[in-house]
Protein 1
Amino acid sequence: GGNKILSYLAQDWTYGVYLQYGSGTPIPVPSANSSLNNYLFQGASFANRVPGQPLFTTDLNCHCYDPNGTFVLNPKAWVDPPIGQFGASAAYYSDYRTQRRPIENMNLGRTFQIREKMSFNIRMELTNVFNRGFWSDPTANSAAASQTRLPNGTTSAGFGRINTTTPTAFGSVANLLPRQGVIVGRFTF
């Protein structure tokens, strides 16, 4: 008798996991502050990368900085090309990326057999199961943009600023979507 009860409790469970881990998306190289592209009706010229200069002032993935008061990109890593010349930089670099944003979704469900051709399935699906939050991308348009702070020390504008106060075009300040869950029931007959 005990084996039938244990078998009933342990049977017909389903568990699913979707995990995606990878590097952050590439950050575009800042535009050069040159009027050459206006004269030639070309696309924007890129600033040149300075050899030996770090691209970041802090590691975006370490969670060890205050996004309200830290400029995370190094403006000294970029320099405008000489007058009359286009920049020699590529549009993107493999080591110049945003914060990693893993995707972690899980579900758990069970099917209850009612009769031979009838069953009821219930499933709980969770998105962002570990409740991770991510800040928006740093501003990276122009390395020459002045880095300014408010009197309380909060960053207000400039190269490498992370926007933590004003909603973006997509309606959110940051990718702080909380853990969400849904329960799905299905009766099959």
Protein 2
Amino acid sequence: MKKNLFHFVWISLMIFAVSCAETPEKEFRSAEEINQTLGRGVNMGNTFEAPDEHAWGNPWDPEYFEIMADIGFSHVRIPIRWTTPERSMAEPPYTIFPEFMNRIQKVVDTALKNGLHAVINLHHHQELFENPLENRDRFLAQWVQIASFFKDYPDSLVFEILNEPHHNLTPELWNEFLRDALEIIREENPERTVMIGTANWGGLGGLPELSLPDDPRLILTIHYYNPFQFTHQGASWVEDHPVMEWVGTTWDNTKEERQAVKDEFEFAIEFARKHNVPVHIGEFGSIQFADMESRARWTNFLARWFDEQGFSWAYWEFSADNYGFYNPQTREFAMPLKNALLHDPMPEPSDK
């Protein structure tokens, strides 16, 4: 009896072992599938890309991610400045301090816990933009650490290599740097979806000079703030433009205004088709100095039109001044913007 029991247990264990060996590991989804799942998102802006989390008046609250998920967003983009003296070393080995890495881990974990996909990036890397060659090693060393730290995370975490390359980080240099960073990421994250943006501030203008690596798990990310006189009217940080003279600029949802958007994206749509790469609109938003009716019309048209194109998107942004639509003090939404993003269908164009 004992002998028969032994054989039964042994055979059962062998069958279990074989069945486990034959069960494939869960594969990461394709970039296209990830992009579809990202869907509609929002930026956690003016928080971790600030010099200090509290510096720009919008510190993170874990409740924000619960709210985002509850009202219908599928992902959150988390802009992050890694280069301040309190967050990382400016000299070799360019260590990101554990306290800050753990803080970002908590933020990412909270997003995933609430059912949101998360996009993390390198944001406001001013040293790299001013002196690319001198800061290349630091840029790449940061990605070594970030990619290694998050290597075991599910595919619901997406990496974005760098926000809005510009200035001395020319399109030619950016094409080199992005390949170097992607190669580093791939060492421990061979299947993770990675977003790549354009030089010249991340917009459509830099797309013709972008050289995408041959990698099937990429998403092209583009920022869109046109017409600039409308979205940035009165913006104090914009230099060399008469921003105060722009105050009062409206967006009326005319056929001509809509066609201008479509014309500007024509090359991007063809680029994406040619390179078989999905598109994410990583930022779009209009400033609080514009009238709310125009802001809602512009936001609604873009959100619905991006949906129609199969683009995922992340509105700029959630809870800060200037562009946000949620007030943390009153716990109220700017309902015209919330509805324009998530609920309102696209109306017919204006006859104005």
Protein 3
Amino acid sequence: SGGQQMWNFNRETQYYLVKAELTSEFNNNHQIKFGFEGRLNNLKMHEFEVLPDQEPHYAPITSFQNNIYEVEPIEMSGYFQDKMEFEDLVVNAGLRFDYFDPAYNVPVDFSRPELSDREPAEPTYQFSPRLGLAFPISETGVVHVSYGHFFQIPNYFYLYTNPQFNIDPLQSSVSPPPSSLKNTVGNANLEPQQTTIYELGIQQQLGGIYGVSLTVFFKDIRNLIGTEVFRTLEGIQFARYINRDFAYVRGATLDFERRYAQNFAMNINYTYQIAMGTASDPNNAFLDAQADKETEKQLVPLNWDRRHQINLSLRLGDPKDYVISFIGRYGSGLPYTQASRVIQPLLENGGRKPDEYTLDIFANKRFIWDRTSVSFFVKIYNVFDRLNEVNVFSDTGRASYSTEPLYAGGDRPRGLNTLDDYFIRPDFYSSPRRILVGFEVGF
């Protein structure tokens, strides 16, 4: 499209890890596990925009166009688990502890965040119980139940964005560019994402080599990240990341398996899932405020809300001689937000992308001479060269064309390309067919 990218990014990440685990058969009925992990991170980042018409050629550190930080967040965790095996019951009971210190600070006054005094962010921690039960319902059938709490540290991006809390004075609240997110600041006081998972399943053996299982699951997700909108004393809007959204996931997985016998094995599973939340994009509230739109609290499909998923694998042959494997996957379309001809977009994630499917084939032939084995293999990914549309134009819901004008006026698009060139988007599709041929030697 022409031009140059004027932003420069330099990032460096290091960490020091200490980890210890111990497993012990306490007696015939108890297996004890416990462990500890400590991680000290060192994160460095410097980003700045080149300003070719000014001296010096990049903005001063006091500008929103020049950001730098070096932080050392600390992560620690420990767990204890007891696996209790009785005649007709297996119990897995455990407790996990997580601790996180972002090692940064936050402004006290958000009417002038760049000039405000700072205070240290508060460390966060959580005790997470886990419980699992399994018991037989017949000689070849088992029921399992599990319940657990989980702790997920926020992505560091949301903690340290715009680390000096500088606000762009040119981005006023009067007709701001709707897509601009320059005036967004991080929040080292973000709470970790909390997830509670419930699961109920049944497994049943059918004959000697067949088995079927059904698992029903529910996930309750809290402390998802959104934005809170502030206004400076000069009337400039900016956003700060906060915990404001929640979501739930529910679904079921049906699995059928044929164990390897007579040179043939098969597994097929189907998952139906609904993933809904109050928002998929953490920046929604800020974008709504810039467009003078009231943010509506309503459940919408999350970005990864794939309603139907089918996985199939077939394995043929003798591992001592040759093996041919077929791996197929089908998934219904993921959601996307449709565009409209008016200023406001339609319901978030109200549209669906096309379905996706692919087939991979792996073949292996083995030769043995004395104590040496040589295996020749061929791996073919995406055998049918399927063009799965992983990204789409928001007005058509397809990756191949759009009806939106690229610009106002004129008879050709800006930049170096023609209109037809602009709509050729390889990044909107999944990877094409790929073939690997090779060999392995074993002694």
